[in-house]
Structure formats: structure tokens, C-alpha cells
Design brief:
The structure is a single chain. The protein is of the alpha/beta class. The protein is about 45% helix and about 15% strand. The protein has 19 helices and 18 strands. The strands form 6 sheets. The chain has a 5-stranded parallel beta sheet, with helices on both faces. A hairpin with an 8-residue loop joins strand 13 and strand 14. The chain is elongated, with a radius of gyration of 31 Å.
Length: about 475
């Protein structure tokens, strides 16, 4: 099973070669064979250059725009295996196909080990050779495409592992660079899996606090009764299990950055205590009566609509304004266009090296499925998808069959407005429901922006979403 490259790569040959014809160099000491192959391959869409002297072929190869070399294994002056090795040394981008007599299979295998792409045994049909050549051309095009994609990955502006060329990510990078130089509190918003903690790390590493500690806590993962102690510490005997005093995360992050992930899940009773710590820049351990000065930068993150939480009195407005001096909104992966393929290539390179597998890129159909899929789990889901694909594939490209079922079988949802089938016609209320949910999905769950786009006030939008079971 051969897999095509992501897209064809145009060939720039000499003036007598059209851009659509792959150029092949035939090396065979039998002149008649060279002439037969030239005639047969030209009829099948190839441009052919041939040499009967292998040393002469090697001499001119670096200066010729050749896509594939076809060489006889048994030639006077230079064996085919040596020719393979020297072609690969001088033009590693050019695949070599060797021609061997029937019964010389061991020699052909030796050529493959020397780096030949494939072999054809005599006698053979020109159609057979043409098929092998086409696969070799596609293989070369894939390698060139992968190089291009890898160069794009390498040259893409990034902060740590953040990668992207979309306009949305460029705005994020610009904000990171600007806010990192300050010491203000930053709120990072975005769906789960968009890379909020990576942004927090990037801000810390680009800041003047880079030499200080980076301490993180997920506010949703710690039970409410323990969270206060985690943040502020406790004294010995402050509660039943407090056998010794313990510094809280604020003190542990002194001189550095404290990252409060999922801050929208911070229990309401704890919010005024956090606000006081931020305002006074002091913390009081649980059970203590002395306030301890702290020097900490706060970076918070949430996948919730905090403005809606403020309006619903589930989050204090004064705390919201304190943590949200600058907000960085991370786009969903589905809104980042071609960044999907850049990230996929980055993950393929990473996991192929880790798993010691020769996987170099995506087959075109797999790339199409990735671009069509909505990735509700965002970058984290794509990363998991590529790790799985690299582990399962038996080829040097990730194919459709290597992707998770939900990705390969995904069909984009469509908003039905007209249909010739009366059974598919729906009420105005259903069309409104579908459209609101469509806009909500397109804007990554940003309800404030959804309300603005729809031209309704937020309370109206919240009531409708609650009716649709989308209130969270």
C-alpha cells in the first residue's frame, strides 16, 4: 500500500523539461536498453536522461535536476551497490531503483541495504518499471514536503512549545512578549487543551522572574477544605493532621510566579481571602496570627466565562478585576487553520524520535481528515492523536487508518436552512437553537462575544443556553 505525499511538489528541470514531467536518469552499459527505456518511459510521462558510463553519470548528477535514478546492478567499472552508495552520498534526495537479472536476488537485497529505494528483476515490462518510478517520485515529493513542513515548524515563531503561524496565535505571541516584561496579573482564557499552562510558563520564562520558582495549582483538583492550606500554608496543630507547620504555595512561589489554573472553580468562601492576599501582598497561614509578606506574580487560567460567573454571583467582581489586569485569550484549535498540520508534524517528529520509528509525515488523506475534524479537545487531543498514530502505523507516513475512529469518521455538522425534503424542515425555534449553538462553538464558548454577535443581552442568551442544556 503506497501513500501519496501531502501535495505534489513541482519540479524545476532544465529548459527542455516541462514542470509536470518527472525526470529520470537511466544508467546502463547496454545502449540498446537505455534507448528502449527512454522511448517507453517518455510515452508514460517521464523525461529521460541516460548514460552508459556509471562514472560519467555520477559526474553529471550533481548538476542535473533528477528525481529518480534507474541503474543496472552489473556494469563494468562500477558495481550497482557502489553506485547506490555514491548517489546517496552526493544526492541523498534522489531515490535509486536498481535493475537486476532474475536469480540475483541477494545482490538486489544488498543494493537495498546500500540505500536503493526499490529493485526490478529482468525481464520486466516497462509498465512495471513506470509504476515503481511513480512511487519513487511520490516518495521523493513526500520527503521534500516533509522537509518544507519541518522547516516551517523550525522557523515558526514560538514560545517554548507554543507553535503557530495563524493570525490568532501571532496575536497571542505578541501579547506574551509584551506582558512578560511587566509584573501585572494575567488571566489566560480558553477551552481545555488549548495550552494555557504553556502560556503561563512562557510568560514566566520571558519575565524578570525567570530565575525564581514557577509554582502551579489546579484549583478544581484540590478539595475545598484543603485548598486554603495549600495556598496559604498552616501552622502546627492548625487542624487534626497538621503535625508540623507547612509553607503554602504563595510562600513557595516567593520571587517567582504562582499559576492558579481553573481559577473559575475557586470556592466562593475562599475568594475574599485570595483577594486580600493579592491586595495586601501578605498571607496568613491557617491557624496563624501573623501575616507573612510575599513577592509573587499571579497568572491565572480558566476555561469558564468568568464575566458570566460574576453576573451570576458565582465569582467576586473585585477578585475578577484584580486577576484580570491583562487577559490573553487562546483560540481553539479548530479556528487556527493550517496550524493543525504544523502541530501534527511537530508531534510526529517528537514521538517518532521517542519511539525510535521512521515516521516522517502525513499522507494527504490523513491531513484532510485532521483539517476537517473540529478537535473539541484542542491541542491536547491532537497531541494524543499523533502519539497514537505514530505508535500504530506500519508505514513512514501517518495514514487515515492510523487515526482514531472519531477523527477518520468525522463528518462536519451542517446548519440546515433549506432542503427539498419536507421531512427535514424544522421550526424557527429549532433553527434558532442550531444557529446559537453553531455560533457558540465557532467562538470557542465565549458567551460575551456570542451575545454581541447575536445582538441579544447576556441574560437572554444564558436563559436560552440553559434551556438547551448548555448552561455550564
Amino acid at each position: 500500500m503506497e501513500r501519496e505525499p501531502i501535495r505534489s511538489v513541482p519540479t524545476e528541470g532544465s529548459a527542455r523539461v516541462t514542470a509536470t514531467k518527472p525526470r529520470v536518469m537511466v544508467v546502463d552499459d547496454d545502449r540498446a536498453m537505455c534507448e528502449v527505456l527512454e522511448l517507453g518511459l517518455r510515452k508514460r510521462g517521464f523525461d529521460v536522461l541516460w548514460h552508459t558510463d556509471p562514472l560519467e553519470a555520477l559526474r553529471v548528477l550533481p548538476n542535473e535536476d533528477i528525481e529518480v535514478v534507474v541503474a543496472d546492478l552489473n556494469m563494468p567499472g562500477l558495481r550497482g551497490t557502489e553506485l547506490c552508495s555514491r548517489v546517496l552520498a552526493n544526492r541523498p534526495d534522489v531515490p535509486v531503483i536498481v535493475i537486476t537479472a532474475f536469480g540475483s536476488l541477494e545482490t538486489a537485497i544488498a543494493a537495498i541495504r546500500a540505500g536503493a529505494y526499490d529493485f526490478v528483476t529482468k525481464p520486466f515490462e516497462v509498465d512495471t518499471l513506470a509504476l515503481v518510478l511513480q512511487r519513487a517520485v511520490q516518495h521523493r515529493a513526500l520527503r521534500e514536503e516533509v522537509k518544507t513542513l519541518r522547516r516551517a515548524v523550525a522557523s515558526t515563531q514560538r514560545f517554548d512549545e507554543l507553535i503557530g503561524t495563524s493570525s490568532a496565535m501571532k496575536r497571542v505571541f505578541d501579547l506574551i512578549a509584551r506582558v512578560a516584561e511587566t509584573d501585572v496579573s494575567v488571566l489566560i482564557s480558553g477551552e481545555s487543551g488549548t495550552g494555557k499552562e504553556m502560556v503561563a510558563h512562557a510568560i514566566h520564562r520571558k519575565s524578570g522572574r525567570a530565575q525564581g520558582p514557577f509554582v502551579a495549582i489546579n484549583c478544581a483538583a484540590v478539595p475545598e477544605q484543603l485548598l486554603e492550606s495549600e495556598l496559604f500554608g498552616h501552622t502546627k496543630g492548625a487542624f487534626t493532621d497538621a503535625r508540623m507547620a507547612r509553607k503554602g504555595l504563595f510562600q513557595q512561589a516567593h520571587g517567582g510566579t504562582l499559576f492558579l489554573d481553573e481559577i473559575g472553580d475557586l470556592p466562593l468562601p475562599l475568594q475574599p481571602k485570595l483577594l486580600r492576599a493579592l491586595q495586601e501582598r501578605k498571607v496568613r497561614p491557617v491557624g496563624g496570627d501573623v501575616e507573612i509578606p510575599i513577592d509573587v506574580r499571579i497568572v491565572s487560567a480558566t476555561n469558564r466565562d468568568l464575566e458570566a460567573a460574576v453576573e451570576e454571583r458565582r465569582f467576586r467582581d473585585d477578585l475578577y478585576f484584580r486577576i484580570n489586569v491583562v487577559q490573553i485569550g487562546l483560540p481553539s484549535l479548530r479556528s487556527r487553520g493550517g496550524d493543525v498540520l504544523l502541530l501534527a508534524q511537530h508531534f510526529i517528529d517528537s514521538y517518532a524520535a521517542r519511539q525510535r520509528k521512521r515516521v516522517i509525515g502525513l499522507a494527504p488523506k490523513a491531513a484532510e481528515r485532521l483539517l476537517a475534524y473540529s478537535f473539541p479537545g484542542n491541542v491536547r487531543e491532537l497531541q494524543n492523536c499523533m502519539e497514537r498514530a505514530v505508535a500504530l502505523t506500519s508505514y513512514d507516513q501517518i495514514g487515515v487508518d492510523d487515526l482514531p475512529e472519531k477523527v477518520r469518521d468525522h463528518r462536519p455538522a451542517q446548519l440546515l436552512l433549506t432542503s427539498p425534503d419536507s421531512a427535514e424542515l424544522v421550526s424557527l425555534e429549532e433553527i434558532e437553537r442550531r444557529y446559537i449553538l453553531h455560533v457558540l462553538d465557532a467562538l470557542g464558548g465565549n458567551k460575551a462575544m456570542v451575545a454581541q454577535i447575536l445582538g441579544v443581552d447576556r441574560r437572554t442568551l444564558y436563559r436560552k443556553l440553559d434551556r438547551y442544556g448548555q448552561s455550564s
